[in-house]
Amino acid sequence: MNRIAMPATDTEAGSKPDAPTYRAASFTDIDMVHRRLGEIIADMPYYNDEFKAFETARMSRNHLAALIEADPYHVMLLLSGDEVAGFMISGPDLGTLWLYWSCVFPEFRKSSIAIRSVRRFIEHWDNGCFHKVSTYTMAGNAPARAIMERQGFTLTATLEQHIFGEDYLLYEHRLTKAVPGYDHGVRGGPRRALSRTVKRWLARK
């Protein structure tokens, strides 16, 4: 089961008219993404300590590497000019594309990057491979809910005491699946984990 929340917080105040760009992450980006995600999880006001500890451990460097290995765009870096302004982390599970985290760094939040990047995320993944994108957020996370609803996500269900005793909202966005078969996601096992560790080490050199 995906135990996910979406903490995007952004407004259009002070935004520039040019749309943000994005790129796929590489193994050289893993340390930065892991560090910034840990900071964002720790600072989020919406989630309890149990969830924060669980999610910080789950989103390990090896897990990020596995997502990149499956498809580099599962760790999509949001760009403001030449700078990385945030990221969107996703992964396939049982034929559904789950948006795990959508994060804009605090120094870029007085912009429209979060809103526009969700739009770009949908455009990129509406490639015929998935029926839908699913994501969780919390009832109290009004900025994330506003962004989801503005970009065409539908509130599918309210899940009571769903994650460590707290209520979560399931949002979904329909895609157009045209390609037969399903993406089975990341490849596990100690051999794959060791291979990814070696690749991360080589990427630092």
From TrEMBL:
Superkingdom of source: Bacteria
Pfam families, per the entry: Acetyltransf_1
Boundaries of every N-acetyltransferase domain copy: 32-176
PROSITE patterns reported for this sequence: GNAT
Protein name: GNAT family protein
Protein source organism: Devosia rhodophyticola
